[in-house]
Amino acid sequence: TVTLDSIPNDCDYDVEIYNGESAILSGSYFSGNTNEKVDVLVGTGNYYVRIYSYSGSSEAAYSLNVNISTPDIYEVNDSASSAKNILVNSASFGTIDNIKDEDYFIVEIEETGNHIFELQNISSGKDYDLSLFDSSGNAIAYSWNSSNNDEIINISLNPGCYYIKIHTYSGFSCEQNYMLSVYKEDALTLSMPYIRTNAGDTISVPVYIQNLPTEGLCSFDFALDYDATAMTYLDYTVDYSDQNGALVDSEQVIEAYEESDGLIRVLFWDNSTTFTKPLNQSGIVIRLNFQVNTAVSEGAYDISCKYGSFAKNSLDSIVGVSHAVFKNGLIMIGSYGLTSLQSGIRIEKLMPMEIYVQYGDINGDGNVDSIDFGILRRYILGMIHLDDPYTIFADVDGLDGINSIDFALLRMYLLGMISELRESQKDYIVLYKNGQTKVVLASEKYGYIWDGWSTTPDRLYRELILPNNVYGQINGRSKVLTPNYSWGIIGGGEYPQGIQLTPDGRYKVAVAPKILIPGYPDNGRIWTSDFDGINRNIDVVLEHKTTSEIITIKCYVSDIKAHSYNRYTGNGNNVSFDIVSGLVQTGIAYPNSWNAKYETPFSEYHSDGSVIEFAGHSTGSFNPSAYKMVRILVYK
């Protein structure tokens, strides 16, 4: 991180970084005497920092600072244009790795409602702050608490893109991660508190559940990790008369079992014969009792949620809750002074590339969890019917059909009392087609694949959202690119005449390299062979500029845009755009591309901000200029 501060009045200084071969790596070109800042990822070697005057001069001193630090996985993300995506109901872990580091994230809010932004796990002795901006860069909320106290913003938002900024007021750490969480206020939440105690004490840790679905929960299970060197698990307590409790009826059954030192499993189910006693009240669901070891050192010890599943009875079907926010507990022993070490995790059902169904996986989603437990109980009570081959997976013991023995075995498995059900021979596999699923014999899958079925889910993709405006300078003149409005252009030049489509009807298009490969290097050649083995199918989601109609066009990337770099100085040109290279058409060619060496390193004619270039001279009756781009879906 290189910063140029204290630029004298009436002067405009800029700063650039070069490698040992004198090739420019990055630069900062703000107007006036605005402080300049450059962030670049480098390896070992010699680098050069160039400071020059765009206009004006003065005998007054400027201030140059160079910080070398270990980056987190999101760097470089020190501006809104380089912000990294974070999803609602998710957590990201990063570091403020030097005193000048600022981390930006971008989040898409899809529906109106209260949303919570939390910054936790700030290093002891440090003070980080949290700010929120709208898509135009206007500050709309902030949390600037003192010391390393958690920062929290609770705000009602309309749909749209928002920027999150994390910066330091004092101190930094490239070793301890902060945790940034974004979630809707109504997301199902499982939490435990901070508890201060001493060596030798007995403690009771309450587990709270909040924001339940309207149907309530008919079953759920989760696992907790704790530090067995600091505490010894004793037992659990369930109190149906607790005024702060979530359980109100003895037919709401919950159990806990220590599978091994440091790992506790918890299982809940509606034990009524009519399935009419779901958990539908927030509060404490269980208390876990521990003995703090007498020889434990003073410090902070985490109790963390490892995984979980939550099932509800919706329209006579057992379905899983899509996500849950886990807020982990903290046991602070002795006089240890840490005030913020809370962590959390987003629970997401990630589908493997191929799902082989195992015994106990009654709904065929690749997991044996409380959802299957709920389905099995409804089946045993005669409330639902199961078709083959799902009855095979419900017959857990493989003997005498599906009965209470299978229910008992599945309960013991979910609590960790037994380590396996019947050994799965991977005889069955899950296939997908047009949003449907089918479980078939693995030996027969190729016949189905020939018929259009796939072993991967239809919606396995990465979402890409670009800013509405990208600000830049071309030889001292300001220029604004608008990727979402000038997203698509018709190809020309050497592209073939007419509409260019793949055999399955996708438009052939060209895109910048980081659309397909986010980590594509800045010294890349931009050869199409660099993208061999990458799935090039993308969908472009569009909104009509006048009618607001949403459509999706299916595309295939047949070519790569070379003129999508973000900085160029040479041949009398000084050009820069405030966006990560490799996303939009800037007119600047990648330095090591054929275009830069043998054609033109910069062409203002190509500086149009487009994202999609149709590989043909026509798109037929489809008019790209009638639409603005909402997002791109890049299939894995």
Polypeptide structure, described:
The chain has 636 residues and is mostly beta strands. The protein folds into five domains: 2-66, no CATH class; 80-184, Jelly Rolls; 189-346, Immunoglobulin-like (Sandwich), CATH 2.60.40; 370-450, Type 1 dockerin domain (Orthogonal Bundle); 462-635, no CATH class. Strands 17, 19, 21, 22, 24, 25 and 27 form a seven-stranded mixed sheet that branches. Strands 31-41-36-37-35-40-34 form a seven-stranded mixed sheet. A hairpin with a 2-residue loop joins strand 29 (428-433) and strand 30. The model is unreliable at 337-354 (pLDDT under 50).
Question: Quick recap of the structure?
Answer:
With 636 residues, the chain is mainly beta. It is 7% helix and 41% strand.
Write out key terms for the chains shown.
seven-stranded mixed sheet, mainly beta, single chain, globular, Immunoglobulin-like, 6 helices, 636 residues, 5 domains, Jelly Rolls
Biggest beta sheet attributes: 7 strands, mixed
How many independent structural domains? 5
Question: Which secondary-structure class do the elements indicate?
Answer: mainly beta
The number of distinct helices, counting runs of at least 4 residues, comes to 6
* Distance between the amino and carboxyl termini: 33 Å
| Secondary structure: number of strands | 41
Oligomer: single chain
- Radius of gyration using CA atoms only: 28 Å
Low-confidence stretches: 337-354
Shape: globular
Name the beta content range: 35-45%
As a percent range, the share of helical residues equals under 10%
Average of pLDDT: 84
